[in-house]
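Ligand: zinc ion. Inputs:
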Amino acid sequence: MRMQALVLTDHGPELIDNLPTPIPGPGEALLAPRLVGICGTDLALVAGYKGGYRGVLGHEYVAEVVAAPGYPEWVGCRVVGEINTTCGVCDSCRAGHVTHCQTRRVLGIRDWDGVFAEYFLSPVANLHRLPDEISDAEAVFTEPLAAAYAVLREMPKSSGDRIAILGDGRLGLLIALVLRAEGYDPLLIGRHQNKLDIANAAGIQTTTHVEAARRFDVLIEATGLPHILPEVIDMAAPRATIILKSTGIERTQIDASIIVVNELRLIGSRCGPFAEAIVALAAGKIDPKPLISSRFPLNQAVAALESAAQSGVIKVLLEPNKPSPLQPQML
Ligand SMILES: [Zn+2]
Ligand SMILES: [Zn+2]
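Predicted complex:
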């Protein structure tokens, strides 16, 4: 069987029509996407992200299990899935830090074909069944929402409560929604009124401008700007916690003495807990649907990527191609 997929090649992203449909190996499931999301990581990979990934893009999905040899109970289930495939035996895996597996492969990011396709593979162990309360349009946010939930693990137990989130993009908005839903009162700092309006509607304070003298006890960086770190450090109150979420951050000169003198904590944060994201969605604590800017069929995936890269656009989704009424299988 052949399938269509969006492949990152040496010439950039290309829609390819005749890729072989993958065959699940031991412990693996074959999945058909119901809805997939384009995220900043996909755009960074296209823009020449380090590592030089080549293969099918995409890692945010809700899908149906088509086949799972040895696991018949999974076939037909509607699922979301974790993106790291791990070895289970290295030091990181045995310590329980599976997202830091020394030989990890990552769906649509490193050594594992992604979800911008008619079919893709996942280890069965990575899958989570979805309750009926969660719609596809909500479920497709599970992976980035889990990444937003990862911030909660790093929030200081007791410190001041001046909390700022920098960046009103996809991740910044989700982090704001999570913190608000979990009882915090963050200030979202951004540049796009249409994005800040979504946060306002969820009861989150927002601003486009912060006075130079203002300081925060917790700063969460989600701007995606490669050289933002010195600016973030300047906004930190003594003993502040700075949580860095942007994978696009680059080598930057900082005055490290400020970290020592002001006793700052600098924390990197990446993947997060799917279970918490699913519980929050099922309970209706978080509604990510206002973040959806547009939907494209898979066969317009290149245009969808271009759209997602535009300023002001938030979440672009890809859905399966609709069969043409003239195709023979309809007769
Ligand atoms: Zn992502
Ligand atoms: Zn490992």
